[in-house]
UniProtKB/TrEMBL annotation:
GO terms for biological process: oligopeptide transport. One of its GO terms (cellular component) is plasma membrane. The chain crosses the membrane at residues 27-45, 83-100, 112-131, 152-175, 187-206, 227-248, 254-274, 286-303, 335-355, 367-389, 395-420, 432-455, 475-496. Keywords: Cell membrane, Membrane, Peptide transport, Protein transport, Transmembrane, Transmembrane helix, Transport. This is Peptide MFS transporter. It is found in: Cell membrane; Membrane. It comes from the Bacteria. It is a multi-pass membrane protein. InterPro entries: Dipep/tripep_permease, MFS_dom, MFS_trans_sf, MFS_Transporters, POT_fam, PTR2_symporter_CS. One of its GO terms (molecular function) is peptide transmembrane transporter activity. PANTHER family: PROTON-DEPENDENT OLIGOPEPTIDE FAMILY TRANSPORT PROTEIN, RESISTANCE PROTEIN MDTM, PUTATIVE-RELATED-RELATED. Belongs to the major facilitator superfamily. Proton-dependent oligopeptide transporter (POT/PTR) (TC 2.A.17) family. The lineage of its organism: Bacteria, Pseudomonadati, Bacteroidota, Cytophagia, Cytophagales.
Length: 500
């Protein structure tokens, strides 16, 4: 007689293996990103506007490659091989950044450092494409399709993401970000490289033992699809965007990849909507995924100011001294991870309690709430910087409040969105539609970099940046842009939510 498959309480051990792997990988991604703009401005001598666009270009490309990585793993490599390859590439990328930053000196702006910077970031962009979509989808594969523990599994996994972000951000801020010591940034990158090696080793050690379905079948060893050439419609524009984006990362031509992103989305839509096997209801569900993905662009574009304009703000405009000790500017981004780890179980309890009373809001309503909370965070900030005298620094209370509200918003929008995409996508297009979600992130991160480049620099004598005819003359104007855009998106999404 066969034993019943896995205990119904608790989670399979494989979840904790994926948790640990993703924790180390996010340590590496967020740890590096936390100090990136400061490294670019203080060691690489880029100006803030340029560094902002560079940051947006990089993170945008990071979210573009999962479409390619997902395609290769679905058809050729399987999840495991893709994760190992991606992990090794990302570790290599971090060590390359370490080499770039070690070159820092009086000749810091010299060619070799710059080339190594591009090479390192490029390697990580490709590595992430193999890693991220595969680790996210493996979580669900450990359970049988109807298992109700899946939502909880993704919540636990999301906590792993943020625990990694917390550890990475703390370590890189403390060892790499010290005012007046740009030569220290390299230790941050080295730590991130080591973290990525650890993640890859842990995964390699446990994959055979723990990654199986409840029935004992190995997960992610073989590809799940075969054939299907239509994917090329979506892949080609993305590949092109990737190549051009990388070549143009440091030039004004970078925005040219935006239409290619649009083309990729059209390609994906074409593939899906011309598929004869889909029912009318399937088509409507897919439409909902596209619409919701459009709205989240406004969320992430404002949210991902954290390592860019909000870090410039913490660096220059905020009083960072606590008990006589001056905190590094980059460490404040940590608040997001702390609030998410603490808040995720609370939020899950709130939804369950509301669910029991049949009062749980529908997913699009939760996401509209996320956007509203994001607007509220920037509104608090507007109060903080209103009529600010030159040379006066703002209390850190405002940034802490902003991160609190943003994290609450993230919890309403991000895990909910992931599971919405999972639930609505027809099985045969599940990875492709997950890639649509990531493409929304790519567009949003690009926009985030662009928006941060409009950060009004009090020291600059250049004319005030202009956005759609609106002059951004001070920090109040700058933060107000996010209040308005997020609030408008929240209201629109709320209005159409019952239709969705
Ligand atoms: N913080 C989450 C992660 O790192 C979600 C990021 C996103 O979708 N932009 O996976």
């Amino acid at each position: 007689e066969q034993a019943p498959p896995a205990a119904s309480t608790g989670h399979p051990k494989g979840l904790y293996l994926l948790f640990a792997t993703e924790m180390w990988e996010r340590f590496s991604y967020y740890g590096m990103r936390a100090v990136l703009v400061l490294f670019l401005t203080k060691a690489m001598m880029m100006d803030k506007a340029f560094a902002s666009k560079f940051y947006g270009g990089y993170t945008s490309l990071v979210y573009l490659t999962p479409l390619i990585g997902g395609y290769i793993s679905d058809r050729y490599w399987g999840n495991r091989r893709s994760i190992l390859t991606g992990g090794l590439l990302m570790a290599l990328g971090q060590f390359t950044l370490f080499a770039s930053a070690s070159n820092y000196g009086p000749a810091s702006t010299h060619e070799l450092s710059h080339w190594l910077l591009y090479l390192g970031l490029g390697t990580m962009i490709v590595g992430n494409g193999f890693f991220k979509p595969n680790i996210s989808s493996m979580v669900g594969s450990l359970y049988s399709p109807a298992d109700t523990r899946k939502d909880a599994a993704y919540t636990i996994f999301y906590m792993g993401i943020n625990l990694g972000s917390f550890l990475g951000n703390t370590i890189t801020s403390l060892i790499g970000d010290k005012d007046g010591h740009p030569e220290l940034f390299r230790w941050a990158f080295l730590a991130c490289g080591i973290a990525m090696v650890l993640g890859t080793l842990v995964f390699n050690w446990g994959k055979g033992k723990y990654l199986h379905t409840p029935e004992g079948e190995q997960v992610g060893e073989t590809p799940v699809h075969s054939g299907g050439v239509k994917g090329i419609f979506a892949l080609l524009p993305v590949l092109l965007a990737l190549v051009l984006g990388t070549l143009w990362l440091d030039s004004a031509k970078f925005p040219t990849i935006a239409p290619l992103l649009g083309l990729a989305v059209v390609g994906i839509a074409f593939m899906i909507f011309t598929d004869k096997s889909l029912t009318g209801a399937d088509v409507q569900r897919v439409l909902v995924i596209f619409i919701v993905s459009f709205f989240v662009v406004f969320f992430w574009a404002a949210f991902e100011q954290a390592p860019a304009s909000l870090t410039f703000f913490a660096d220059e405009q905020m009083n960072r001294t606590i008990f006589g000790y001056e905190l590094p500017a980059s460490i404040f981004q940590n608040l997001n991870a702390i609030f998410v780890v603490a808040g995720a179980p609370l939020m899950a309890m709130v939804w369950t309690a509301l669910g029991r009373r049949k009062a749980e809001p529908a997913s699009p309503v939760k996401m509209a709430m996320g956007l509203a909370l994001l607007a509220a965070g920037y509104l608090v900030m507007c109060f903080g910087v209103h009529n600010l005298m030159p040379g006066v620094k703002v209390s850190m209370f405002f940034l802490v409040a902003l991160y609190f509200l943003h994290s609450a918003g993230e919890l309403c929008l991000s895990p909910i969105g992931l599971s919405l995409v999972n639930k609505l996508a027809p099985l045969k297009f599940s990875s492709l539609l997950m890639a649509v979600w990531f493409l929304a992130n790519a567009a949003a991160n690009y926009l985030a970099g662009y928006m941060s480049s409009l950060y009004p620099d009090p020291k600059s004598t250049a004319p005030a940046p202009v956005l759609l005819g609106f002059h951004i003359t001070n920090l109040y104007d700058f933060f107000l842009v996010f209040v308005v855009s997020a609030a408008v998106a929240a209201i629109l999404l709320f209005v159409i939510s019952s239709k969705l």
